[in-house]
Design goal:
alpha+beta; GTP Cyclohydrolase I, domain 2; four-stranded antiparallel beta sheet; two-stranded antiparallel sheet; 19% helix; 38% strand; globular
Length: 129
């Protein structure tokens, strides 16, 4: 596998496709450029998903995130693009991407985008006594 930025997201087979479970991934070093000023934007990406047949391979995800370092994009657009790319690669039952951008000009931006398969519904949490 390469050690250079790449838009290629690799996957592997879900080890337990018959069971719904949640994978949570935090990428605290995401960077891109402000499309207006060219200044760097820093964010933490929080990914939560219920896999179907495939899971995202983490090193490829790191290299994918790195590929945005020199790209200019608005926070909202880049959040949706990343979610769309992850969904295309893994076809999850459910996926939520929360992009928490660091302060710039006294403003924090948090963008949340979700994908859900049409007929999938979340299992009800078990309430233990």
């Amino acid at each position: 596998m390469s050690n250079q930025p790449s838009k290629a997201l690799e996957t592997f087979d879900n080890p337990k496709p018959e069971r719904d479970f949640t994978i949570r991934i935090d990428l605290p070093e995401f960077t891109c450029l402000c499309p207006k000023t060219g200044q760097p934007d820093f964010a933490t990406l929080h990914i939560e998903y219920v896999p179907d047949r495939l899971c995202v391979e983490l090193k490829s995800l790191k290299l994918y995130a790195w590929s945005y370092r020199d790209e200019g994009a608005f926070h909202e657009a880049i959040t949706h693009q990343i979610l769309d790319d992850l969904v295309a690669a893994t076809e999850p039952k459910f996926m939520r991407l929360t992009a928490r951008f660091n302060v710039r000009g006294g403003v924090y931006t948090h963008v949340v985008a979700e994908h859900r398969q049409p007929h999938w519904s979340s299992p009800q949490p078990v309430q233990l006594p």
